[in-house]
Design brief:
The protein has nine helices and no strands. By secondary structure, it is an all-alpha fold. It has one domain. Helix 1 packs antiparallel against helix 8, helix 2 packs across helix 7 and helix 4 crosses helix 7. The longest helix has 42 residues.
């Protein structure tokens, strides 16, 4: 009887240890995704940068200015918008209003979910989303440099993805779920 109990407990401990390893890998991707999203938001930190990032989103995701603005009107940062559009693009039908709404519903809940869980529920690998958002960040920064516009500090901050916003954000930019808003973000409540 004791041996059977020992086997069951050992199996449970081993399962939890393996599950912890999976969670750690997911957390790493989510952290990388948030770092890139923060960098995009920082690049858009002034009027010129905002226009450059919005134009990049329109081009990369084949959306209209009105679609980007509608997401901005929901108090979303540009980094968060790039994640939503990337996930929607991978769904059947691509970036449609219905797909955007489905991504946002999964994200905001109830219950609110992390990007890893959202991508799993949509049948998408988070790594592909990270790559696409990283590309939006890189190209936005390159576009800003090419045009010679924007505050140099904002552009460098956007390119590196480090600084106060990384420390302030916990992965829920503009949705009221972080530890505090970064520049230009609000404390909106999820419904």
């Amino acid at each position: 009887m004791k041996q059977k109990r020992y086997v069951v407990i050992s199996a449970l401990v081993l399962s939890l240890a393996m599950l912890g390893t999976v969670w750690a890998a997911e957390t790493s991707e989510e952290k990388e995704l948030q770092k890139e999203a923060n960098a995009i938001h920082a690049t858009a930190g002034n009027a010129q940068g905002e226009k450059i990032v919005a134009t990049r989103l329109e081009k990369d995701f084949k959306v209209t200015e009105a679609q980007v603005q509608a997401l901005r009107d929901k108090k979303m940062g540009y980094g968060e918008i790039s994640i939503v559009l990337s996930l929607a693009q991978k769904m059947p039908g691509g970036v449609t209003e219905a797909n955007i709404q489905q991504v946002m519903t999964l994200r905001q809940g109830p219950p609110a979910q992390g990007w890893g869980e959202v991508s799993r529920k949509l049948g998408t690998k988070l790594g592909t989303v990270v790559s696409q958002v990283k590309n939006v960040n890189r190209e936005s920064h390159r576009d800003a440099k090419r045009e010679g516009r924007g505050d140099k500090e904002q552009l460098e901050k956007g390119h590196e993805g480090h600084g106060a916003m990384d420390r302030d954000m916990t992965g829920h930019e503009g949705m009221g779920m972080g530890s505090g808003p970064g520049p230009g973000m609000s404390h909106g409540k999820s419904k």
